[in-house]
Amino acid sequence: MFILSGALGVALILIVLGDAFETIILPRRVMRQISLARFFYQSTWLSWSGAVRSIFSGKRQETFLSWYGPLSLLLLLIFWATCLVIGFALVHWSSGSVIKTPEGMARFGTYLYLSGTTFFTLGLGDVIPTTTFGRGLIAFEAGMGFGFLALVIGYLPALNQSFARREVNISLLDARAGSPPTAAEMLRRHSHDHGLEELRQLLHEWERWSADLLESHLSYPVLAYFRSHHDNQSWLGALTAILDASAFAIVSLEGPCERQAQLTFAITRHTIVDLAQVFNCPPRKPKHDRLPPDELARIRTTLTEAGLKLREGTGVDQKLSELRRMYEPYVYSLSNYLHITIPSWILKSGRIDNWQTSAWGRSRGFQIDGLSGEGHDEHF
């Protein structure tokens, strides 16, 4: 019984330490499917999202879903700490370590109390080990607790920095592609003089942003659960809009940004596919066509009227469909898992940009060149 308890305690300590190392320190994707953190997030996310979606709707639903990312991180840290405390308590208890207590009796609960006060370095001193092994184990656990606390202190700022860096470009996309961002609106807002060069530069910036998001979200997958400040913005929606715009530019748009669109499409598609693998989201065919022929025709008409020169024809349509099949099933699978609404190819009528709204109403009666307010409703 004692040997089995000791082995269980050692195994629990090693599993938690390995899991914390892979989650916090190891800067690469963990390939094995059996992982304590992976199991924690998959089980708790399914429970949380299912409960929230069955109870709430609309903005309330989005609000409670946004709580999961930060809350799950705190719960995971508490879960790790609890497992380590129990693991060390089992090792103390199974080793027969003699401890001095005020009551004179030592049950498992006493060992658990000793482990907890040691791990969190409280130093109360009311329960004291009297054997050499017990004292050594106490010193080791105290060092482990101090190191664990230091890792947590360093981990949280890194997450916040990665989240803030991710959200900057998403916010900048608001005035360039609408709210939510769409490929058609992004292309139309770059139809002015020198607009294609600005579009090329935008796609170049998003090439680097996608690579940065790939590295940060592979190292810290919990960031995928952190939702944007506005309910019509998200990292997945932004990536989808960039993929849509890049695919359209590759096959239809004549001008200087075709090569850059190819590079941006490649890294952005790579990001989507790798993240789908991290969250075990196999590609799924969308239930509805995101770009039916009539909407594609409307987009081309609008962009042509705006002054853009487009390639058209059956071959162009087929090539666009092939590019869409390379990423849309992964986007759709991730959107279902994370419960994030992905944008359409065109803005819906009546939508205005986030920069034109406030808690006290909407800004009306003006329009800045290159930034479309309610004027975009006239195009679609």
Largest sheet: 2 strands, antiparallel
Instruction: Kindly report how far apart the N and C termini lie.
Output: 73 Å
Radius of gyration: 27 Å
Overall pLDDT level:
86
Sheet/helix structural class: mainly alpha
Count of DSSP helices? 11
What best-fitting shape do the alpha-carbon axes yield?
A: elongated
Largest sheet, spatial ordering of strands: 1-2
Low-confidence stretches at least 5 residues in length (pLDDT < 50)?
A: 374-380
Task: State the total count of DSSP E strands.
Answer: 4
Tell me the series of helices and strands, N- to C-terminal. HHHEHEHHHHHHHEE
What share of the residues lie within helices?
55-70%
Topology:
Elements: H1 2-25, H2 36-55, H3 58-95, E1 99-100, H4 108-119, E2 128-129, H5 132-177, H6 183-188, H7 195-219, H8 235-252, H9 258-278, H10 293-305, H11 314-338, E3 357-358, E4 361-362
How is this structure best described in words?
This protein is an all-alpha fold. The protein has a two-stranded antiparallel sheet. A two-stranded antiparallel sheet has the order 3-4. Helix 2 (36-55) packs antiparallel against helix 3 (58-95), helix 3 crosses helix 4 and helix 8 packs antiparallel against helix 11. The chain has helices at 2-25, 36-55, 58-95, 108-119, 132-177, 183-188, 195-219, 235-252, 258-278, 293-305, 314-338; strands spanning 99-100, 128-129, 357-358, 361-362.
Report a brief summary of the structure.
The protein has 11 helices and 4 strands.
